[in-house]
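Marked as duplicate of an earlier ticket. Keeping the data here for the record.
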Amino acid sequence: MTATPSAGTMRIHSLGLALLCGLLGGTLASAADTPTHATTQATNQEATMQKISGEFELKMSPEPGPQDADGIGRFRLDKRYSGPLQATGIGLMTAHRTATEGSAGYVAIERVRGSLDGRSGSFVIQHNGLMWGETRQLTIEVIPDSGDGELTGLRGRMDIRIEGGKHFYDFEYALPAL
């Protein structure tokens, strides 16, 4: 038996997509559409920071259960990363849009599992996004000590952008030597 989504569920699902697209659409200036690779020496750190870019696909669906607690919606994230990060990402997002047009926020936790520049394992990233007026803030960071396998000790920060309807990531990270 297939349940038909209620108007409230559809509104909350639209809220999540609008929040995510609104936050991501203004985070970074345009960059090349192809995966890139760069290395920079980190300031005051022993490890060399790597910079990679690639594309990802995103599927977002409302979480079962009460969908509207005073405008707060919950969503399941399902991602497929390609490029130097070959991985899947599974996460949960909580979002809210205020009565003021253009003001909203979201938080999410996402487990990323696969390979990063050929090193296998998983890690967890934390998203924190806010928007108001023309201002967009998005912070996505690796949760300390969340890496496992060959990604143990991973630290880093990710930015997300949408160009031409496609999603891209820019990930700056450091890993200890194997």
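See parent ticket for discussion. DSSP finds one helix and ten strands in the chain.
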